[in-house]
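Continuing the series of single-chain predictions for the mutant panel. This is the parent chain; the variants come on the following pages.
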Amino acid sequence: MVNSPSNAPVVNVTVVVQNLDNNVTQKTTTRRILHLTTNNTVDVRPIQPKHWLVALSQTSMQTANGHSDIPYRALGRTGEKVSAIGVGGFHIGRISDPKESVRIVRAAIDRGITFLDNCWDYNDGESEIRMGKALKDGYRDRAFLMTKVDGRSKKEAAKQIDQSLRRLKTDHVDLLQFHEVIRFEDPDRIFAADGAIEAFLEAKQAGKLRFIGFTGHKDPHVHLYMLETAARHNFQFDTVQMPLNLMDVHFRSFQHQVLPVLVKNNLGVLGMKSMGAGVILQSKTVTPIECLHYAMNLPTSVVITGIDKMEILDQAIQAARTFRPLSKDEVAKMEAKTAAVAASGKFELFKTTTHHDSTAQHTAWLGKDPAEAEELAKLVE
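Parent structure:
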């Protein structure tokens, strides 16, 4: 259970939940709150796609970093606007020449991209180290910086938060997210007593982060359970990150099941894996620009894409500058091209295999189970 600060306001809290059987429940309680919508309601029921037009209308061509041809979008209800295309942190740490990583990050910012993604575990910390170097000389002030941690316990999460800040050479990140929420037990561990949410809230109070979100790539039902679990603890996230692409629409779809919930609750939508780390392109059905435009056409705040060379940065900039809302016919034609090959999920390896599950391969990163769970486990050993 998350403990609210003693000076938090006491309000009537209404939680509206639609479970996997489509049953809707609503419960009103009076208690101190941490973070809710302005009307004190957390609604995790889906909405129809027609409401996406409202989200897309928040796109603007306002000037940022002196570039008025890069679209910028509202990051949910945070009051922030970010570039519609973001730089993924994983690939930054894999470039053979560290200086080239710095050059790419700075070139992206100079050309109008403001959103930077990263994670505590990317390339054993090398991705954060290189991005930290790139953000020197005033570049930090021009970027919206996000990173993620794996810890599920308060102790492990707090340690990883501080390590990330040191690597990134900053006293705070704009957005911190729980990484790889891919198991149903992850939400329970995060919101347990001495769970990672407590480390996040303490870090926020200390000025180490501004906004809180979570990511995951495995199954939309896990995302929905994370949102439900947060609601039961009177907490609402600022952002949610998930795969959104031309294959996802046909298989175990985050677009169909999670995206409408995020739009309804005005949460920032962070799209990722628009090309499935390049695997989707191997289907020979769609082009990189089509992949990026399709994801941008959804009510995403930002579409994060991996960039490991300058020509890939050029591609991302081109996609951002040439994007215009797609017609229903254009969307239907794109989706028809991938329907047959997407049906089994074979081009979305992050859903159907363990290739992208770093926390499953390194369970120590998660930290210890809740103390109560460990005590109960001893009784049956």
